[in-house]
Each structure stands twice: as C-alpha cells, then as structure tokens.
Amino acid sequence: MDMKIDVTQIIIALITVLLVPFVKVYVAPLFKSKISNDQWKLINQWIVISVKAAETLPEFKNMEKCGKEKFNYVLESIKTTCAKYGITYDETAIRNAIQSVWDDLYNDVTK
After folding, report:
1. Where do the domains of the chain lie?
2. Helices 67-85 & 91-106, crossing angle to 10 degrees?
3. How far apart are CA 99 and CA 47, in angstroms?
4. Residues contacting residue 94 through CB under 8 Å, at least 6 positions apart
5. Number of alpha carbons in the 13 Å side-chain half-sphere of residue 20
C-alpha cells in the first residue's frame, strides 16, 4: 500500500493558522483606522506650524497666560484644515498631539 501525503495542504494549513492572527492583530486595525499614517503625519506637521503661529501672532503676544486661547486657536485651525482636506477629525487624538508639541516646545525632552 502506497500512502502519499500531500505536503501542500499541510503547509497551507500552517500558514493559515499562523497568518490569520497576525492579520487580525496588526493589519486589520490599519485598514479600520480613521486616520491613515500619511494623514496623521500631515496633521502633526500642521499642529507644529499652528503652535508656532500661535506663539508669534500679535493677538497673543501681549496677553499673559493666554494658553487656553492659544490652544483653542490651534485646535480650531487643525479642525478647519482637516475639514478642508476631508480628513477625519479625532479631537481627543489631536488635543493630545497639540499638548505634546507644546510640551516639547517648552520642555527639554532629553532629560
């Protein structure tokens, strides 16, 4: 009796068993993400530009402790820019990114 085992089916089964969890954990969230990596890079660039602008705009120059007004200026600027380019606006993520840029601006992050 000659028994032949089809190794191809075994290899396909092993690949499927190993690949499916990887796709579910790492690849699927990328496709489900509201903001793509390229969009997020753009948003971060806009945030840096807006924070720098808020620090130099004349309407904020003479105001003491106008952090809230500056923050809201940057937040609205990013919200408007996202709408202009059709990018999903995630306020929580953007608030955190703005705060991070301001922290980096005023604190030595290498400490």
Report:
1. 37-106
2. 130
3. 10
4. 43, 47, 75, 78, 79
5. 5
DSSP letter assigned to residue 89: -
| pTM (2 d.p.) | 0.62
Neighbours of 83 (CB within 10 A): 11
Q: Residue 11 is encoded by which pair of tokens? A: 């290899």
Structure tokens at 8: 């191809």
User: Which 3 state secondary structure label does DSSP give 102?
Assistant: helix
Sign of the CA dihedral with 74 first, then 51, 43, and 110 last: negative
Q: How confident is the model at residue 111 (pLDDT cuts 50, 70, 90)?
A: very low
Read off the pLDDT of residues 10-58 as tens digits, 9 standing for 90 and up. 777 777 777 667 666 665 555 555 677 888 899 999 999 998 888 888 7
